[in-house]
Structures are given as C-alpha cells and as structure tokens.
Design goal:
Blueprint (H helix, E strand, L loop, with lengths): L2 H5 L2 E2 L10 H17 L9 E6 L7 E7 L2 E8 L6 H14 L8 E7 L2 E7 L10 H10 L12 E3 L2 E3 L7 H19 L5 H11 L2 H4 L6 E3 L8 E3 L5 E3 L5 E3 L2 H9 L5 H10 L6 H20 L2 H13 L1
Keywords: Kinase, Transferase
Family: Belongs to the fructosamine kinase family.
Organism: Phaeocystidibacter luteus
Length: 313
C-alpha cells in the first residue's frame, strides 16, 4: 500500500492547479510520499496537507507542503548530478553558521525511489527588503579563510563550479573561474581561437585589477532571486554556490540583474567599506556570472563577456 493511501490525509489544491501536467503529478506524488515518510507519525489522521508548486524551479521542481500552521519546502532533483543537494546543503550550513545572515534550515537531504530531495524550512514571502541586509552581508563577508576556494567543488546553477584551495585571488579567478568557462565556450564553438586571445590577455592583468583582500565567505550566486524577503522585510539567502573569494564578486552579482536598493549597498559600505574604484571594477566582478550564463544560455552573454574582457585586457 502506498504512503499516500495509508496516510489517510486529504490532498488539497493538486487537481485544481493547472500547473500540474501528468508528468508533474507523478513527480509530485513521489515527493509527497517522501514528505509523508519523513514526518511519519507527526501529523494527525485525516489532517489536510495542502501542496503547492512554487515558481523559480528552473533547474529543480520545487513544492511547498502546508500542514496546519507549519509549512515546508521540498526541492526535487531530476536532471542534475546526485550530489547537487548535498553541495547545496553544505553551502546553506556554512552561511547559516556565521550567525549574521538568515538562511533556511536544512531538514533533510535524502533519496526516494532513485530521486534526490532537499527538505527545507519554508519562508513566507513578503516585500520591501530592509537596508540592514547590506550590513548583514558585510558581516558575513568578514568570515575568512587562509586560502581562496572551498573544501569541495559545487554548482552554480546547473554548471559545475571548481573550488581548489589556492593561495592568491588572481590565480583562483584565472584558473578556476575564467579558464574553465572560456574552454567550454571554445569547445562548443561559441568562441573561436582568435576570440579567446583577449581572455588570455586579461588573465595576465587580474592581479593588478582587483584590490588585495583576504578571502571572504561568499554566497556565490547572489542575484535577487536568491535573496528572499519575508513578511517582516528580512532577507533570507537560498541556492548558494559558496566559496572563499573576493567579496566584490557577490556585490558585482547583486548589481548585474538589479533588485537591490541603493540603501542596501550604502549599509554594506557603512559596515565594511570597499576599496576605492569599485565602480570601475564592477564589470570585472560580473565577468564570471556572465561567462556562466554564456555557457548555459549562449546568446548575447557571449558578446557581453568578450566586451568585458576587452575592456580590462
């Protein structure tokens, strides 16, 4: 007997939700069984469980389950490597342990019938990010390490991210950020051999372009979609691609797609001022995420990456 039939709960919202096509229903039902198995014995018989498919699941399917006054989030891994949620949980744990930023609790990372799941605390969305997030992020960036990198490779979006511990930021940025992306673009035909020369010219200048700073704990993929605002205006960080790097990388990413007010950046500067000239360097700090988008999506991101490389080479 399936957990669904034995649980004797009422499922609300599934049949009426037009987002659930047949394949999605199958994914959902397996997710529900995992959810019910994890919480077996906690909920009353005949208790209503309200499922909802959440937006933003570009890589994974994401569902919320409301049970009475409690809500949870389940992420479902369909197409990524099996360790993707272990890496994500590791990053969330590292950010949470700083004690200075809000991060959802990781409740479980597990597998059910060959599918990987990540079970998280649910954050009710609100609006109006408080400027105090800037100072919280600045304090998080003060968490440091002797070397740049991370104790394991992880993922930025669906792309594997290399994080070998490295003595200098210039070497790490070139060897673990620029070269892997440029090589992928050359391999898939997006960049010709002549076009890659401008990136080679840039590589030799990186150590002179970024100011010297200690390694900072980074979120690593800090666009506004990965900074949830709750009903009180507090910001919660999700979907990290953590490593110890140059803190201007997070700030450049925040500027790339917008969504953060000037008050947030001013609060950051008040807590942990940047070296002068950041406005002239911000495009350089955005080069890596643009290269990632070029690898994943192609299109105008390729030309944009070339333009940035030419600007600083």
């Amino acid at each position: 007997m399936s957990l669904l039939s034995s649980a004797n709960v009422r499922m609300m919202g599934l049949e009426s939700n037009a987002l659930f096509h047949p394949t999605m229903k199958e994914i959902f039902m397996v997710s529900y069984n995992f959810f019910n198995s994890f919480f077996e014995g906690k909920f009353r018989q005949n208790q209503t469980i309200t499922p909802r498919r959440l937006s933003g699941g570009d890589i994974h399917e994401v569902f919320s389950f409301a049970v009475g006054d409690e809500s949870y989030v389940i992420k479902v891994n369909q197409n990524m490597p099996e360790d993707v949620f272990l890496k994500e949980a590791d990053g969330l744990k590292a950010l949470r342990e700083t004690g200075v930023v809000n991060v959802p609790r990781v409740l479980e990372v597990d597998e059910w019938e060959g599918t990987q799941y990540l079970l998280l605390e649910y954050i009710s969305k609100g609006a109006g990010m408080k400027a105090s997030f800037g100072s919280e992020l600045a304090r998080m960036h003060r968490a440091s390490n002797e070397r740049f990198g991370w104790h394991s490779d992880n993922y930025i979006g669906s792309l594997e991210q290399l994080n070998p511990f490295t003595a200098t930021w210039a070497e790490f940025f070139v060897e673990s950020r620029l070269i892997p992306c440029v090589q992928k673009l050359r391999d898939n035909g997006s960049l010709g051999s002549g076009e890659t020369r401008v990136f080679a010219s840039l590589e030799s200048r990186i150590e002179y372009l970024f100011p010297s700073e200690q390694p900072a704990l980074l979120h690593g993929d800090l666009w506004s979609g990965n900074a949830l605002v709750d009903e009180r205006g507090s910001t919660w960080l999700i979907d990290p691609a953590v490593y110890f790097g140059h803190r201007e990388m997070d700030l450049g990413m925040m500027r790339l797609f917008g969504g953060f007010s000037q008050d947030v950046f001013e609060a950051y500067s008040g807590e942990y001022p940047l070296e002068g000239g950041f406005e002239e360097r911000v495009k350089l700090a955005q080069l890596y995420p643009i290269l990632v988008h070029a690898v994943l999506f192609g299109g105008h991101y390729i030309a944009e990456a070339r333009g940035i490389a030419k600007r600083y080479a």
